[in-house]
Amino acid sequence: MIKIRTSFTLLFSTVILFLLIILVIFLRLLDNRKEFGSMQFQRQSSFALSDYLIDRNNELTRLCTNTIYSKNEIWKEAYQKFLNYDDPSAQFLKSDFRVDSLQAKGFTSQEIQLINNALLLSNKAIQIEKKALALPTQSTALALLQQKEYLDAKNNANALLLSLEKRIDSRTTKTWNESKEEGFTLFYTLLLLLLFVLLFSTASYYLIRLRLKRQERIDKKFKESVVELQSTKDNLVESDHRFTLATQGTGILIWQYDLISKQLNWFPKNSKLLDFPSEKLTPSIASIQEQIHKGDLDLFNQQFKNCIENGSAISIDVRCYTATKELKWYNFRSASIKKNTHIVGTFSDINEQMKQEEKVINAILETEDKERSRIARDIHDSLQQTMSTSLLNLEKVRVSDEISDKELMNKFTVGYNYLKKAIQESRTLAHNLMPKVIHQNGISPAIQALISALEGSTATQIIFYDNLNEERLKLSVEMTLYRIVQESINNVIKYSEAEKCTIQLLKYSDLLVLTIEDNGVGFDLSTTKNTFGLNSLKTRAEAIGAYLQISSVKNKGTEIVLELAL
Prior knowledge:
Number of domains: 4
Keywords: ATP-binding, Kinase, Membrane, Nucleotide-binding, Phosphoprotein, Transferase, Transmembrane, Transmembrane helix, Two-component regulatory system
Radius of gyration: 68 Å
EC number: 2.7.13.3
GO molecular function, one term: protein dimerization activity
Strand content: 5-15%
Protein name: histidine kinase
Mean pLDDT: 77
Catalytic activity: ATP + protein L-histidine = ADP + protein N-phospho-L-histidine
Order of helices and strands: HHHHHHEEHHEEEHHHHEHEEHHEE
């Protein structure tokens, strides 16, 4: 829509243009009127000149004849005076017979020719009159004036002057008609243009007035919208301020992923993500994937892919490296999306929460280990001692010959052997409940002792590698690793039908990695991922802040990987 300023500019320009046209037409009309007046003046001057020449010729003839008849010198002097243009009324005609003067008065070349011819004939008649006045007798003078040559000169001169008047009258009449027609045309054109400008200005004023009223309504609504927008802006600023305070207080960041531009934006703006300044991280999902621990990356990528493809929600706890290379726990969450172009979710630091959970689990496991230790001590100090004393007494009876009944002796031998076996199993149980080798020598010797104890009792070859070199870890970590290895070996022996099982415990500068791998029958993780045994392994790993991943394919074996940040 054309703006008000533009409307006024167009209107003003149009009016100015038409006024300029009107001015040009008005000036042309003035010129027309000037030409008309000049033409009238020329006509009047032309008629006056022609009439004067005719009257002069007639007057000269009258004076000449009076002089001849009266022989009076007064008439002759009057004739001579009139002949020399001494009459004051004819003084202006002395120079009017020049060609340039006649052209300046508006005579055409034909009209000038007629005037010159008339003057020649007049001069010829004057010469005859002068001869007549010079004759001594009246009769000869009058006879000379009666000659055809004189009469033809006088008549032809007057005829030429009358013809000149008719030509001038015809020309001026035609010019007058043309000038009048042009004048009326210019006048009516000027009148129509003035009327058009008036109507155009009135209509434009009316339309612009309507436009101004509408603009006033629009401006009023605009001002109301501005006030409303300012109020909304203030509310948004206040809401954003509350949102910023809330996120700063809770440590929660909001993320938004654009499915079209593939950009990942974080809110509030300029927040530190993983202790990185905002300008250090690019607005892409890759910037986060680069910081996620490799053990959590596959699961994160799978959930993110499912969210994009299926609209499912994201809810995953991942470990991420901060700007200081510290490994912390974070919760990555989003709602399910349907027919949307954005994914919106939260990113929160749950490291302290995970530490508290680890403390709780550690307390549980510590309590469990203490209880195991107590039970092991009770078995060793009480039950084993009692059974050992019973075994010694039975041994004395067995070596004596007091039992002669063979059947009774067989029963005695069976009981003796079961008691001996119970003592051995109680020792094994007490050792398993709390292996002293962990307290005394550490995790590596404990695992090696466990493997040695199983030699000969299983067809699976168990190989152990480590690089700790007698270096000790925290007792809680060593106990957890031992329980995981112990449970895993039991599962290999019971279910895997493996020929070989390899255990590796490797320590790096910032990471401890435990790998247990076999070449057995494997199993389907989708049907066994929630079993007690597997959950127990993961719970123990999480208790010390470690990440545990189990991979298995049917007929291709199983691999358990535990990673613990140091």
